[in-house]
Write a structure and sequence with these properties.
binds magnesium ion, binds adenosine-5'-diphosphate, 10 strands, Rossmann fold, alpha/beta
């Protein structure tokens, strides 16, 4: 039994059939990547997993439990957190308050939440230096770190990231990917990563799925896909 299993998922926006019979699995401890061009349906897939968008048909199973019709805040509580596309931090709140809000789903003492924040500051020293700063004044890379930190505050078993490298300079992209790898290796967090930057995504993933106009056209070991002719031509500029 996989940690997360999507079976024959179909999602529509009105008449637009955005997700067509997608099936995929994520095993405990894996980094799984979903790659594909703009408009392929990556964000729609992730938002359906998180309960933000409703599927027309199909199932999403997490730990033996059908979460397809669960509300978003319950899915978060169950252990699946998402760092959304474009980060969506609260720009008029401080870094500290953004992090605190990330744990709203957890019934824990203030002390323990503060300890959690201290751990996030260890991972992201730049956030500690800027903890009283309004989040909207952070650089793009710092905002991405904050978005990841906020998601970790809910102590997810699965962290879903929607294009974390978008709009970041190459050095920061590397840094963000190192953070994702570290969360997976040292924090026991299973990762589902969506990227247009296929090369980076495939370089850190265990397995990957290639999405094209709402359909999965290829899946396999990330290393095999890096060497796959079709993937190289379409997504790696080779
Ligand atoms: N709110 C929406 N209303 C109508 N169509 C949408 C909406 N959001 C996305 N779509 C369409 O669904 C398809 C998949 O979009 P999306 O999941 O955002 O792709 P990706 O994240 O891979 O770029 C696209 O054709 C897009 O135009
Ligand atoms: Mg998207």
């Amino acid at each position: 039994m996989s940690l997360l299993e999507i079976k024959d998922l179909n999602v529509y926006y009105g008449n637009i059939h955005a997700i067509k019979d997608i099936s995929l699995i994520v095993e405990k401890g894996e980094i799984v990547s979903l790659i594909g061009a703009n408009g392929a349906g990556k964000t729609t897939t992730l938002q359906t997993i998180s309960g933000i968008i409703r599927a027309k048909s199909g199932q999403i199973i997490y730990h033996d439990k059908d979460i397809t019709k669960m509300k978003a805040h319950i899915i978060l509580k169950e252990g699946i957190a998402q760092v959304p596309e474009g980060r969506r931090i609260f720009s008029h709140l401080t870094v500290y308050d953004n992090l605190m809000l990330g744990s709203y789903s957890i019934k824990d003492s203030m002390e323990s939440k503060k300890r959690e924040i201290a751990q996030i500051y260890e991972r992201f020293p730049r956030l500690e230096e800027r903890q009283k700063q309004l989040a909207g004044t952070l650089s793009g890379g710092e905002q991405q770190m904050l978005a990841i930190g906020r998601a970790i505050m809910s102590r997810p078993e699965i962290l879903i990231l929607d294009e974390p490298s978008m709009g970041l300079a190459p050095l920061l992209v590397k840094e963000i990917f190192e953070i994702i790898k570290d969360l997976n290796k040292n924090n026991n967090t299973t990762i589902l990563l969506v990227e247009q930057n296929a090369k980076m995504a495939l370089s850190i993933a265990d397995r990957a799925y290639v999405l094209e106009t709402g359909k999965i056209i290829k899946e396999g070991n990330a290393k095999d896909l890096l060497n796959d002719d079709i993937v190289r031509k379409a997504y790696l500029g080779a």
